[in-house]
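Cross-check.
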Amino acid sequence: MPILGRIAREPLIHFLVIGAVIFGVFYAVSPEPAEGETEGVIEVTPEQMQRLDAEFRAIWQRPPTGGEQQAMLDNFIKEEVLVREALALGLDQDDTVMRRRLVQKMEYLAVAEARGLEPSEDEIKAYYEAYPDRYQAPARLSFEQIYLGEKPDPQLLAEVRSALQEGAAPSTLGADTLLRFDMDLSGRAKVDAVFGGGFFGELLPRSGNVWHVNVPSGFGFHMVRITDREAGTPRPLEDVRQQVISDWTLGRMQQMKQQKYEALRAQYRVETPQAATAPEAVANPENPA
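Predicted model, tokenized:
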């Protein structure tokens, strides 16, 4: 018994026992090889080599050399080894990035069919007529502006108004700024690039040839007078045909993706916490009864 006691207290014995337990647990929980996959064997098929070759040609616009082809093969084998080991360790479980990537692949498969679809002439025309705002030349404005500063200043505004009534040149009035005094006929993109996003939208509904006070921009506030405008006009179908076809295809892809999801979703019974799905709580959150 004393001998057995000394053996039981040996650190080396403890290490061996713990190692055996860990190995046994790992072997018990390790997944079996997938059907058709031989454990410990990595087979590189001719199709996989062709895919690697095609990817190289697409990037470099030339075939790979012998050394480059071997490097691609080595990288592929390294990737396969690490992926298999990661799956064996369960590293794919509860991985947000991997879940999102799988969702992207499923959505890609759902819309793959739509990529080869071609709309008929009637479908092109119907889509064009259904969304006229998408296919018209943008509205344009020309205007003059007097900068009033970063915040509304009643005293400065009164001085500007008085000077305008006395015939002063508008370009000489207001707070100091590097902003241009006037703009020729310009669309939304150009105006917003100069004065900040949303400024064109502020001007569009305003009447012309009168001074509008405290019009906000990305720089502060302005007095603005619209001197000319061009309304958006429809562009002929032939001028926007390719855009219409692209938009139609994108719409079909979104539609098919939603239909595929709804079909898959119908196969599942979803259980959620009752409080999260109670109709009363959603319809009338202020009345818990």
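Residues 101-135+235-269 form one domain. The chain has twelve helices and six strands. Passed to J.P. for a second look.
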